[in-house]
Write a sequence for this structure.
């Protein structure tokens, strides 16, 4: 299934277990090297097929991510039902992108072509593999393409096209075996 592109929000991570007794939760970002989230005032939680906006009482850096506390979540018991809930942010709440930057989540739904113009499929999903983002491309088959400069050549958000340096079937098999 191809995820829907959302021009208003971005997925940033998943809430982890409660931290302490006062309702704080760990926020595990998809990319630990991502931009500073300290200025956020709200997060969008994806629960039960719906998106619910929750105001933040506090957000602070931790060793491997962030610790967040929502308004109205005052105890560990209040926080427990929020464990493992995916989190999004409004794009407008983030600093502007620099020249040549884009959000990898914006590639979802885009057509993927090689530098020679051959169509490989459509980005069905993106995920973080611990080292970098990866595009899951579905076409005649399924490919996983690292979202690194070696492979990712260009992104045209307006045309919804990603161009990759990707050669033949042999590379597809070796890339998916890693």
């Amino acid at each position: 299934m191809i995820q829907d592109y959302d021009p208003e929000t971005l997925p940033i991570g998943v809430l982890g277990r409660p931290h302490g007794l006062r309702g704080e939760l760990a926020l595990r970002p998809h990319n630990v090297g991502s931009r500073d989230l300290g200025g956020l005032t709200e997060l969008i939680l994806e629960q039960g097929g719906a998106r619910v906006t929750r105001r933040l009482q506090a957000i602070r850096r931790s060793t491997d991510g962030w610790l967040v506390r929502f308004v109205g979540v005052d105890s560990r018991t209040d926080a427990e039902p929020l464990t493992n809930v995916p989190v999004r942010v409004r794009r407008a709440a983030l600093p502007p992108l620099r020249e040549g930057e884009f959000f990898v989540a914006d590639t979802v739904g885009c057509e993927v072509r090689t530098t020679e113009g051959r169509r490989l499929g459509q980005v069905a999903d993106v995920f973080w593999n611990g080292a970098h983002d990866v595009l899951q491309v579905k076409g005649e088959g399924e490919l996983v393409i690292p979202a690194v400069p070696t492979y990712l050549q260009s992104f045209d958000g307006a045309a919804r096209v990603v161009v990759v340096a990707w050669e033949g079937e042999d590379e597809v098999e070796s890339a998916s075996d890693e």
Remarks:
- Confidence is low (pLDDT under 50) at residues 170-178.
- The chain has two domains: 9-93, 104-177.
- The chain has two helices and twelve strands.
- The first helix runs from residue 76 to 79.
